[in-house]
């Protein structure tokens, strides 16, 4: 049986490497998408263009504006539109915020009184808006302390553990690695099986004394191996190009990736039992993958989702693998921290792989 | 002479549709048996049951002495199959294809090498064995497919329209090879639409709408139905059955 | 004219029979609307915050409950058995740890300096920023309530106002833009696949030997998809408005007009792709790569264009979705009209015209 499996694997590899489209799909596209996403995927809020209406025009008001634009958050600009028409600037997407400084600004401050400044924000991008408001109040607080000399007795000092630079990329790329592994191994294994069915070689194989386990293993192991090459490639690019940290254990990462492969290859097998053509297989994989990605906490935290959807995400194996990859890479997480995810992956892996195996075997009979 | 294939009232239904309706047959060892019938008559379904690709709904059968329900694995070891659809791997060369199937049939490596050389010679494959199977013209591809099905020296060879789309010269050559196989004792179970090929067979059966309506030697059938040749025999039989069915 | 109708009718039958097309055209938009409306929510909340209270006074407990009652922070399920903030974060039990050292109550009474510590898991930079931001707000309002009556804290106070989407609903940001994505998917992807399919199966050749002109073939094939795309757009808008409460502040006619131009651009892309590939599979892959992917990633749909490196910012000028998404968001959320959207409008029209020209030229070259 081992010989048969090896023969099947050799055949599969020969086929994959002779198919240029396949090669492009496995190696070039994912890395391309990785690099693209790495550059594009940042949910950082910065460079908020702000029009400043300074009715005070004093040294103090100018200092206030300067303090707001220190750092990358706000880019302040003199407005080109009178205040009454300020809304037009929002509609033209010229700026995202407007700061209005009243003319009693410096007087009030010099008399140690409080003074209200108006801060209007474009709420269209809800996330940016609320973060902008947060920054504004932070910058204002710092200004207040400096200028009024009155500092609140209770101060909050913050420190960030992991990713102190606050780079989105460090968070995104491990996620992308998880995604890639999922998509590639599931899609390729599904397509490989369906292709044999489509061209008739599956039938030819069925006439031979080949045993079903040998067939399944022969068709899934090659893609497990390709999957490993894939993540290695992605990790290499991530670390070399984007300088992603790797705080944890390589062995652990690869072992858990191996565990996760049971889920993805099982899913691929399942998809092959519901598709009759390769395009269908490709499409179904894409379809499942889309939803797995959206609800895995890839770029929107699961905690942000409504409760009902949060419960649903417990059924998404990618969610666990995502946590695992990010945990190991960014936080150096080890088994004692990751054991809930590992248990979940074991359960899913066994369940999906076994179910798909049985379904496939039945179909073959 | 032992019987290679024995089937008794073999039936296959798909829901309400009866694809194969209680067919019974015996095929002797070393026979060239022609399995004829119009398109959709149920020939392919019947062959698939004999090859272990499909489980019958009812009826009994043995292939090479093994029961088609219970001893599937044994059957597969002793039969070869060449289908209508060209089922070799297109992007693999002839040699790679043969090596692959040889491994699947668990032929020991040295034997496999020898066997491949043997077949390459007898079937004339060496000219194109290094080229990707998908790039070969039909005639050569079918020869390659035949070679793949013979690697493990099967006792029975099922051929489902093996010469479809092949030119007459190749067809003749193909049948010469088939004859020599039969001489060596391999049983051949062939379906075909070419009536001249049917006449090459020792016995033929004619299927219509799932049932076998006639079995016998080609010449006997031609005489029985008083027709000039097998083609006319076939046509008249089929139209007669259709008329009967309408009554 | 009726030849076009015949070809369109045939196309409709194809669509109805091809489960994959149906799924892309109907199921996906519905599901995507749900997902983008609910699941993709970047407003951070439900942040698991562990409070290590070493002061154990009325004040410290009040501070803690202020955090938890704000709606931003959640108490971790299991009270941390560990007392080391770092270990708590590493264990994943909490996202942030607030350390209230002993002495808070005293500092409040005597008005002396005191430091609260907050350790935040920085992995998700967005959540970390939000955590810091909210925490500052909590502490500030806690302090304000502690100030003697009538005492005004000197300094600048921000009086904030949110224009458009004042409830800061994530769905208002994502769902309208989704229309651009869906229209692109249907108009570009499905179209390129269906034309490629005719080429692949040889039926295109068959059609061309008949008295039908290439132009009639294209129009006929493309019409059902236009109808489908517009139907989907309308459905999403209705859903957005009635389910998610997205307003429609501007002119529907304006949106329809630019929607059609956008669809024209998308269709041209689809046709162009179909002239470059030979199989359906390639068509789908290429369509995804050059139309759907840029529309989602480079159009400003989710990720800000201004944060991207220069090269990608330039590329985004070529993505039709960039303009159309601005138009949709402008019209629906801000009530913008042509006087403010003319820039986007001009770019979109130019893109559409250019793409249409290139596509028709290539198509006629390849077929005619």
Helix content of chain C: 55-70%
Structural class of chain B: alpha/beta
Q: What is the strand tally of chain C?
A: 5
Mean pLDDT of chain B: 88
Query: What is the count of distinct domains of chain C?
Result: 2
Instruction: Give the terminus-to-terminus CA distance of chain C.
Output: 19 Å
Question: Helix segment count of chain B?
Answer: 9
CATH class term of chain B: Alpha Beta
**Strand proportion of chain B:** 25-35%
Level-2 CATH architecture of chain B: 3-Layer(aba) Sandwich
Which spans of chain B of ≥5 residues are poorly predicted at pLDDT below 50? none
* Terminus-to-terminus distance of chain B: 42 Å
Query: Biggest protein-protein interface?
Result: A-C, 102 and 105 residues
CATH homologous superfamily classification of chain B: P-loop containing nucleotide triphosphate hydrolases
At CATH level 3, the topology of chain B is Rossmann fold
Give the number of helices of chain C. Answer: 14
The average pLDDT value of chain C, as a whole number, equals 86
Classify the beta-strand content of chain C into a percent band.
Answer: 5-15%
Into which percent range does the helicity of residues of chain B fall? 40-55%
The biggest sheet of chain B, with number of strands, parallel, antiparallel or mixed sense and barrel status, is: 6 strands, mixed
Fold blueprint:
The complex is a heterotrimer of chains A (365), B (247) and C (368).
Chain A: H1 2-18, H2 20-40, E1 48-54, H3 59-69, E2 74-77, H4 86-91, E3 97-101, H5 105-110, E4 114-122, H6 126-148, E5 154-161, H7 168-199, H8 201-207, H9 212-241, H10 250-274, H11 278-294, H12 307-313, H13 317-331, H14 335-364
Parallel strand pairs in A: 1-2, 1-3
Antiparallel strand pairs in A: 3-4
Helix pairs in contact in A: 1-9, 2-7, 2-9, 7-9, 7-10, 7-11, 7-13, 9-10, 10-13, 10-14, 13-14
Chain B: E1 3-14, E2 17-28, E3 32-37, H1 43-50, E4 58-63, E5 66-67, H2 72-78, E6 79-82, H3 94-104, H4 109-123, H5 138-150, E7 156-160, H6 168-183, E8 187-191, H7 195-200, E9 203-208, E10 211-216, H8 218-224, H9 230-246
Parallel strand pairs in B: 3-8, 3-9, 6-7, 7-8
Antiparallel strand pairs in B: 1-2, 1-4, 4-5, 9-10
Helix pairs in contact in B: 3-4, 3-5, 4-5
Chain C: H1 2-17, H2 19-39, E1 47-53, H3 58-69, E2 73-74, H4 85-91, E3 96-100, H5 104-110, E4 114-121, H6 125-146, E5 155-163, H7 170-201, H8 203-208, H9 214-243, H10 252-276, H11 280-297, H12 310-316, H13 320-334, H14 338-367
Parallel strand pairs in C: 1-2, 1-3
Antiparallel strand pairs in C: 3-4
């Amino acid at each position: 049986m081992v010989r048969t499996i090896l023969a099947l694997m050799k055949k599969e590899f020969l086929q994959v490497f002779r198919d240029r489209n396949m090669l492009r799909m496995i190696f070039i596209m994912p890395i391309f998408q990785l690099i693209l996403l790495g550059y594009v995927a940042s949910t950082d809020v910065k460079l908020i263009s702000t029009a400043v209406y300074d009715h005070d025009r004093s040294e103090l008001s100018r200092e206030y504006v300067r303090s707001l634009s220190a750092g990358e958050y706000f880019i302040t600009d003199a407005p080109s539109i009178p205040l009454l028409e300020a809304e037009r600037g929002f509609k033209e997407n010229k700026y995202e915020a407007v700061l209005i400084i009243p003319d009693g600004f410096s007087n009030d401050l010099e008399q140690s009184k409080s003074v209200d400044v108006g801060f209007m924000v474009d709420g269209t991008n809800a996330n940016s808006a609320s973060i902008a408001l947060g920054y504004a109040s932070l910058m204002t607080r710092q200004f207040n302390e400096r200028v009024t000399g009155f500092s609140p007795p209770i101060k909050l000092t913050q420190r960030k553990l992991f990713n102190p630079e606050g780079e989105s990329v460090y968070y995104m790329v491990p996620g992308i690695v998880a995604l890639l592994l999922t998509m590639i191994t599931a899609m390729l294994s599904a397509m490989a099986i369906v292709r044999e069915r489509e061209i008739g070689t599956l039938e030819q194989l069925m006439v031979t004394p080949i045993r079903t386990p040998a067939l399944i293993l022969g068709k899934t192991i090659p893609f497990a191996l390709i999957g490993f090459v894939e993540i290695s490639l992605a990790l290499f690019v991530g670390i070399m190009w984007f300088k992603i940290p790797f705080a944890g254990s390589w062995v652990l990462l690869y072992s858990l990736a191996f565990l996760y492969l049971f889920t993805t290859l099982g899913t691929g097998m399942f998809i092959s039992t519901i598709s009759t053509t390769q395009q269908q297989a490709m499409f179904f994989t894409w379809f499942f993958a889309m939803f797995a990605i959206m609800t895995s906490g890839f770029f929107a935290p699961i905690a942000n989702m409504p409760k009902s959807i949060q419960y649903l995400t417990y059924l998404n194996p990618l969610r666990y693998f995502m946590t695992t990859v990010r945990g190991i890479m960014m936080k150096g997480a080890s088994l004692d921290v990751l054991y809930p995810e590992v248990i979940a992956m074991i359960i899913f892996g066994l369940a999906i792989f076994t179910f798909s195996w049985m379904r496939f075997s039945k179909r073959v009979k | 002479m032992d019987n290679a294939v024995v089937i008794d009232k073999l039936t296959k239904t798909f829901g309400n549709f009866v694809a194969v309706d209680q067919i019974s047959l015996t095929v002797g060892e070393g026979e060239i048996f022609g399995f004829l019938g119009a398109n959709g008559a149920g020939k392919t379904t019947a062959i698939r049951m004999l090859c272990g690709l499909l489980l019958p709904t009812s009826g009994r059968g043995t292939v090479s002495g093994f029961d088609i329900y219970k001893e599937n694995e044994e059957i597969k070891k002793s039969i070869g199959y060449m289908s209508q659809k060209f089922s070799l791997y297109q992007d693999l060369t002839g040699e790679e294809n043969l090596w692959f199937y040889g491994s699947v049939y668990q032929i020991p490596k040295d034997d496999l090498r020898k066997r491949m050389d043997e077949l390459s010679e007898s079937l004339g494959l060496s000219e194109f064995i290094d080229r990707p199977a998908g790039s070969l013209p039909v005639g050569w591809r079918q020869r390659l497919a035949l070679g793949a099905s013979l690697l493990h020296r099967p006792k029975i060879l099922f051929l489902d329209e093996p010469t479809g789309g092949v030119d007459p010269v190749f067809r003749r050559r193909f049948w010469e090879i088939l004859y020599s196989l039969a001489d060596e004792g391999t049983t051949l179970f062939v379906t075909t639409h070419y009536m001249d090929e049917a006449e090459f067979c020792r016995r033929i059966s004619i299927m219509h709408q799932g049932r076998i309506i006639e079995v016998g030697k080609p010449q006997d059938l031609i005489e029985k139905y008083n027709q000039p040749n097998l083609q006319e025999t076939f046509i008249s039989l089929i139209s007669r059955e259709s008329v009967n069915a309408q009554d | 004219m009726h030849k076009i109708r015949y070809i369109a009718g045939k196309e409709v039958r194809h669509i109805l029979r091809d489960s994959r097309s149906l799924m892309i055209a109907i199921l996906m938009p519905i599901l995507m609307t749900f997902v983008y409306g609910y699941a993709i929510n970047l407003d951070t909340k439900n942040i698991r915050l562990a409070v290590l209270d070493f002061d154990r006074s009325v004040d410290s407990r009040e501070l803690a409950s202020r955090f938890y009652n704000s709606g931003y922070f959640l108490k971790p399920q299991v009270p941390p058995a560990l007392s080391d903030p770092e270990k708590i974060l590493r264990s994943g039990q909490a996202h942030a740890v607030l350390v209230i050292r002993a002495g808070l109550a005293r500092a409040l009474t005597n008005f002396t300096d005191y430091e609260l510590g907050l350790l935040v898991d920085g992995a998700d930079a967005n959540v970390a920023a939000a955590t810091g931001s909210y925490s500052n707000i909590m502490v500030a309002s806690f302090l304000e309530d502690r100030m003697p009556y009538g005492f005004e804290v000197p300094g600048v106070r921000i009086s904030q106002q949110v224009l458009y989407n004042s409830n800061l609903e994530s769905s208002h940001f994502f769902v309208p833009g989704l229309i651009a994505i869906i229209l692109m998917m249907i108009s570009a992807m499905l179209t390129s696949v269906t034309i490629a399919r005719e080429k692949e199966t040889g039926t295109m050749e068959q059609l061309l030997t008949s008295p039908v002109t290439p132009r009639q073939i294209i129009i006929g094939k493309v019409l059902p998809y236009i109808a489908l795309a517009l139907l989907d757009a309308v459905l999403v808008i209705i859903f957005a408005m009635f389910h998610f409460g997205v307003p429609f502040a501007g002119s529907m006619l304006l949106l329809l007009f630019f929607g059609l131009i956008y669809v024209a651009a998308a269709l041209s892309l689809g046709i162009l792709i179909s002239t470059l590939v030979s199989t359906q599979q390639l068509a789908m892959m290429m369509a995804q790569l050059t139309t759907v992917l840029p529309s989602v990633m480079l159009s400003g749909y989710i990720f800000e264009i201004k944060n991207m490196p220069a090269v990608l910012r330039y590329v985004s000028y070529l993505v039709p979705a960039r303009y159309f998404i601005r138009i949709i968001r402008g019209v629906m959320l801000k009530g913008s009209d042509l006087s403010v959207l003319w820039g986007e409008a001009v770019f979109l029209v130019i893109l559409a015209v250019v793409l249409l020209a290139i596509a028709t030229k290539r198509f006629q070259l390849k077929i005619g």
